[in-house]
Amino acid sequence: MASSESLNAKQGQNLTEELRVTADQGFVKAWFADRKQTFTSIELPVKLVGAGFELESSDWDRLLERTPGGLAEATQLILLIQIRYLWWKTAVKISSTYRQGYRASCPAIELAAHYIYHKSNGQLKCWEIYGYLGGVGGTALLQVVLNIIQRLIIYPNALHFTRYCIEVEAERGHAEVLDFLVNRFLSLSNEEKERVLIAAFNHKYIMRNLIDDLGCNPWATESEIWPIYYAVCRNNLEAVDELLGCRKEKGNLGTALPHVARHAGEKVQVEMMGRLVEWMKEHVNSAGLEQFLSTCLDALIRKFAADNLSRLGEREKALRCLVGEGALRFVDESQTVAYLGITGRKNMRFLDILSLDILSENGADINAIDFNSFTALFGLLGTQWAAARRLIEAGADPRLVKPHILLHSLIPSSPDEYGSRLLSAIYMIRNCPQCLQFTGYGGLKPVAVIFDLNDPILLRETLQTRIEFPPKLLTDHEGKAFDERMSRLVRNSELLNVLLEFGAPPDIGTPSLIERAIAGKHEDTVAVLVARGARLPNKQEEIMERMEVEEDPLAELCRISGE
């Protein structure tokens, strides 16, 4: 049978003291507090199942029904399970109820979950449910939880759970609970202390206490888990100041800081970089500052994707911040190439005109780039045509770019790259005699590749150079490629007009271009070819002579040919 009683709020605060764990007692006592802080307890019988007990679903429903005002009115829900084992399905119901939005501000719900461990055979671990259900409501209740766990679960597991609690509560910022846990369980390994410190970095007070009470290393070099690194990752300036302050007190501040600088550079954290620079200038020697600045600058230029235009303004500020602090003064001119990001092909795409401008304005000598070591302009032929042009204007020799690399770069990998890649290619072709003489890509010169891209403007730009029109482009009357080119010219009169301007023969192919254009009724193409002197086929020539229509003879010609 269920029974009920009322207590005042003061008595309710001491509910946990009434908890007694017995082996055979077969009921569940649930305490509820309504908005008036009147506590009511309900005891429900449980069913013996195997080695444990199970609360019938109907009893569980009845427990909820008997809650004063219903769960929606309850400000606190405390379940004190006075049995040794609770069937794990009951816990599912408990957590399910919690997930429906019922608030457990003094969450002894966790207490019920802790009994699951044995019966669930590890399927529902107590620390997993603890982390899932919410924050701890007070140290008194937590004391009971830990006592029960220690009594029912072998000690190492209880300690493991306690360590988990410490980490969770550090992240939640529950100072009182954390102090209780830390004071009771100080036997944490260095790695565990470091994990707790990382979890706590958002809470300045807790972080300081952990460093003092646990002896946490603010720079966990032993296991390479660095709280300061995570503080930088999350752009937490206050945590960085606190951790660096602790590190300063313990000495050896500057040796590891450049490692963190790399991440600040990669994430383009302008304010964070400025703060780190202040720390370095004040507390480390010039060698440490040199390493910090060069590391941060290197990371910023190498790792920040050039196509991330949404953060381009932040990147410019960050670059100017570092350069303004004198980053380039510590860079040997022969190593300038490394700080321009030109250290290998995979990094080339991150170099852009902004980097070149800012660095060259502040003394970087881009002429010091060694183009002989490899084809340094390779990556710039992609999306960074402006940077490629700037390098050429500064003295880089485009003849060192291998022609086959140039030809590959002419083919855009996506529509977004189309214009910039072609502009880059055209500029390089104009300045590279090797490219003009190269006959790769199926024996055709670069102009053939540009022609295949079907853009009359770019084709004209290319042909307005020393590049000769390759006769083989249109005179090879065999093969699928030739037919495709003929079809393209028939459909695109503007492209055809550019080629004719630069010496392409108007009478070409079998059937000829004009025959194809007439058959396809491409009137613009017929007009261009006739204007350039293309000879009409005999049949069409006769038709033209007989035609009396003067307004649009070409249209009439196409119509008659179609018939």
Question: What's a concise summary of this model?
Answer:
This protein is mainly alpha-helical and 563 residues long.
From the alpha carbons, calculate the radius of gyration and give it in angstroms.
39 Å
Largest sheet at a glance?
Answer: 4 strands, antiparallel
Q: Mean pLDDT, rounded to whole units?
A: 56
Structural category is: mainly alpha
Strand ordering within the main sheet? 1-3-2-6
Count of beta strands? 6
* Termini Cα gap: 100 Å
Helical residues, percent: 40-55%
Proportion of strand residues = 5-15%
Low-confidence stretches: 1-39, 46-57, 67-141, 148-157, 221-225, 304-310, 330-352, 370-385, 401-418, 438-444, 546-550
**Count of helices?**
32
**Can you tell me the overall shape?**
elongated
Describe this structure in words.
This protein is elongated. The strands form 2 sheets. The chain has a 4-stranded antiparallel β-sheet with strand order 1-3-2-6. It contains 32 helices and 6 strands. β2 and β3 form a beta hairpin. By secondary structure, it is mainly α.
